[in-house]
Amino acid sequence: MNMTNTGVLIIYTGGTIGSMPSNLEDLNSPLIPCKDLKKLFSFIDAYDDEKSTMTIDNYSIPIDTYCWETPLDSSNIMHEHWVKICRIILENYSKYEGFVIMHGTDTMAYSASALSFMLENLQKPVIFTGSQRPLINYRSDAIQNILTSILYASPISSKLQIIPEVCIFFGGGLYRGNRSTKISTTAYGAYATPNFAMLGRAGNTLWINKDVLLKQPMHFLRTHDNIESNVASIDIFPGMSVNLVDNILKTEGLKACIIKTFGSGNAPSTSEFLEVIRAAVLRGIIIMDITQCWSGEVSLGRYETSSGLLSCGVISGFDMTMESALAKLFIVIGLGHSIEESCDILQIDLRGEQTQSAFNLRYGQGEMLEDSINTISLVRSMTYKQRFHPIDLNYAQLRLTGVHFLNSDDTEIEFYLDLPDKIEPNKNHGVHYLGTLNHHQEMKKSYETLILNISESAKMLIDNRHPHSITCVIKKGSSFKYDDMRIVLYTNGLR
After folding, report:
1. Distance from first CA to last CA of the chain, Å, rounded?
2. CA 411 to CA 474: how far, in whole Å?
3. pLDDT, tens digit, for every residue of 6-33?
4. Which domains does the chain have, with CATH numbers?
5. What are phi and psi of 143, to 5 degrees?
6. How many angstroms separate the Cα of 300 from the Cα of each of 310, 311, 343, 386, 455?
7. Whole-angstrom Cα distance, residue 258 to residue 320?
8. Using an 8 Å Cβ cutoff, are 107 and 136 in contact?
9. pLDDT band at residue 1 using 50, 70 and 90 as cut-offs
10. I need a labelling partner for 347 at 20 to 30 A (CA). Which of 45, 66, 114, 247 fits?
11. pLDDT value for 25
12. Has this prediction a pTM greater than 0.90?
């Protein structure tokens, strides 16, 4: 075993890359997993068995191997196998400059996403790779994938930039693991990151996109291996039975469900469908909305057909892949926080998996406002507030859901943020004035979601140190009630 802090540990879990003919004299005989990586590496000219090194581009890189006793087809990978990989890395973390995980291609993006959330404060490269053809096969893509992964995983030996992330290297491209998805069953370029740039590219030289790498963390590695796997996924389609959705959401023990919706987060707006969703949320099931589209993001509330989901308590998955959204739910729910806090954490970029974060400041539920001036105190501050920096604020919303005006008169309501004591509310109070909601008697009385853009005030007043109060002034009309009031702060993600 290499006991220095250089070199790479190669972990073989199974997959096409390590398969060999059951009869080496007949290359067309059925493929079986190879349980001896050194035997497999004997087909690579760069490998020196005696020195246990790979010589690549004049760099002699020490390698050690860890082969699972029973290598798996990646279709059989379960969450306990992610825990196994995580613990192997943790136990060997101080001994190597990086790790390469040889893995089957079918679920590689799921495993890479999961490991990214399980390994907090990762300071070393963890590179997943595999191949479309077995290593010993003619025209195999395996050798280049393995050798290049080793180079990227050994920044000390290869003198490359340190990549403190879980990545996938495949077909010449280096990708952030929790942004990756498999796009082809046969092509050598089998992966892509539809909503994010490549981390690197291999050609005549190795290029690293330094501008998009995650920053080196300042804290020690922490692992999270308590996984809550009672999570479902539903693809919404035209004509879908509401009973089918209801039955899935009533699965015993279900903790969360991903709904893959149309476009920017749209789904049927019928009362029957929304009641099923609302009932599930009230039962404590976290429902996350991601788009079925190849690229782009969910923007709940942009169209009426997503406003209903927002009012039911569905949270946005922004531009996460299916693989990343699932893994994030597994790990975050496994942390054991309350449902409300878990929902808040899920909307924050933790490992570069989404382009923006949403921080929630909650101001109560089920309130009825009857007085002319109502000051509403903060009920729950933002989760992970240390990740919020006012300078990163893109925009902010005051969001009310389940709004009901209790009479048919014209109603005018002004909103203020942190209105100074003993000062009468007035629109001339600059940044303290957030905006006005106007409701006319000919309009409907109930609204799923009402939103005010409060970006300018938020940039001036909101920080992560003080509680913030909202003052509602009913200038005209009488009482109204709402199910939920919150300020939502949208910031840039980590990268």
Report:
1. 36
2. 8
3. 899 999 999 999 888 778 778 778 888 8
4. 8-223 (3.40.50.1170), 226-353 (3.40.50.40), 355-495 (2.60.120.230)
5. -60, -45
6. 6, 10, 15, 25, 18
7. 11
8. no
9. very low
10. 247
11. 78
12. yes
Overall average pLDDT of the 81-110 stretch: 97
Looking at the DSSP assignment, which residues form a beta bridge with residue 99?
Answer: 9, 126
How far, in Å, CA of 481 to CA of 469, rounded? 18
d(CA 37, CA 362): 54
Q: Read off the tokens for 221.
A: 């590695």
Which DSSP string do the residues of 230-287 spell out, in sequence order?
-EEEEE--TT--HHHHHHHHT-TT--EEEEEEBTTTB----HHHHHHHHHHHHTT-EE
Please pick, among 16, 105, 129, 181, the residue that the annotation labels catalytic.
16
Range list of H helices, 45-197: 79-92, 108-118, 142-152, 155-158
Q: What does 293-342 look like in DSSP terms, one character per residue?
A: SSS----TTSSHHHHHHHHHT-EE-TT--HHHHHHHHHHHHHTT--HHHH
422's tokens: 């003993």
CA distance 382 to 358: 9
Q: Is 16 a catalytic residue?
A: yes
pLDDT tens digits, 359-394? 998 887 777 777 677 777 777 777 766 678 888 899
Distance CA 65, CA 150 (A): 12
278 φ/ψ angles, rounded to the nearest 5 degrees: -60, -40
Query: Is residue 10 classed as helix, strand or coil in its secondary structure?
Result: strand
